[in-house]
Design goal:
With about 220 residues, this protein is an alpha/beta fold. It has two domains: about 140 residues, HAD superfamily/HAD-like (Rossmann fold, 3-Layer(aba) Sandwich), CATH 3.40.50; about 70 residues, Putative phosphatase, domain 2 (DNA polymerase, domain 1, Orthogonal Bundle), CATH 1.10.150. The radius of gyration is 17 Å and the shape is globular. The chain binds 6-O-phosphono-alpha-D-glucopyranose and magnesium ion. The site of 6-O-phosphono-alpha-D-glucopyranose has 17 residues, from helix 1 and helix 3. One of its GO terms (molecular function) is sugar-phosphatase activity.
């Protein structure tokens, strides 16, 4: 029986994945990389900032030092934070708040499992923190998805067994991570069919058979 639901943040509860793309595109343009596309951006979903940078750099022809890469990642994060400055509850994806309220009314614990180091800021600015019991984010972990660490940390903080948790994700890396943590998975977002999760829905505003999912 499911006692906790662990949500990814970017692309599941909030539309910040668009801002990540914009910020990486700004960095790519500065570096003279004009081939970085939305398709490339799909490979950045759920993976760490440094791994996401490698996706951008793979579209250019140059080799960079570790120090240069650190500077580039920081530069992207500054672009991203400028975009986040305008963030408020309007960034919450349709159906997210109703879903969180419904789950809490059933006594289900709510966790966040995001590799983003900006997760606490995003939860505060959107007001979503009000509905969240525990946060596991990029500040808590050393390995990003598809490693299960971020979800294991979330379950540990919620004081639940891994098998008692359901993961809600929009990225392939996240679904693989959820499975590796022995958790059931619900795939959402534009790619939800390709994710091959245990359960699927285009978004949290779509029909989801929570009765069945929570009872298993
Ligand atoms: C999320 C996004 C990734 C991003 C990662 C790190 O998982 O889906 O695209 O690279 O967070 O985010 P951060 O805010 O720490 O740079
Ligand atoms: Mg995501």
């Amino acid at each position: 029986m499911i006692k906790g639901v662990i949500f990814d943040l970017d692309g599941v509860l909030v539309s910040t994945d668009e801002m990540h793309f914009e910020a990486w595109k700004m960095l790519a343009e500065e570096l003279g990389i004009d081939k970085f596309t939305k398709e490339d951006n799909k490979r950045q979903k759920g993976v760490s900032r440094m791994e996401s940078l490698e996706v951008v750099l793979s579209k250019g022809g140059r080799i960079y030092t570790a120090t240069e890469k650190e500077e580039m990642a920081e530069r992207k994060n500054n672009f991203y934070k400028e975009l986040l400055a305008g963030l408020d509850e309007n960034a919450i994806l349709p159906g997210a708040v109703d879903c969180l309220k419904m789950l809490r009314s059933r006594g289900i614990l709510i966790g966040i499992g995001s590799v983003s180091k900006n997760a606490p800021l995003i939860l505060a600015r959107t007001g979503l923190m009000e509905y969240v019991d525990k946060v596991s984010c990029g500040l808590d972990i050393t390995r990003s998805k598809p490693d299960p660490e971020v979800f294991e940390v979330a379950a540990n903080k919620l004081e639940l067994k891994y098998e008692e948790c359901l993961v809600v994700e929009d990225s392939l890396a996240g679904i693989v991570a959820g499975r590796a943590a022995h958790m059931k998975t619900l795939g959402v977002g534009t790619e939800y069919v390709q994710l091959r999760a245990d359960y699927e829905a285009p978004g949290l505003n779509a029909h989801i058979d929570w009765e069945t999912i929570l009872e298993v």
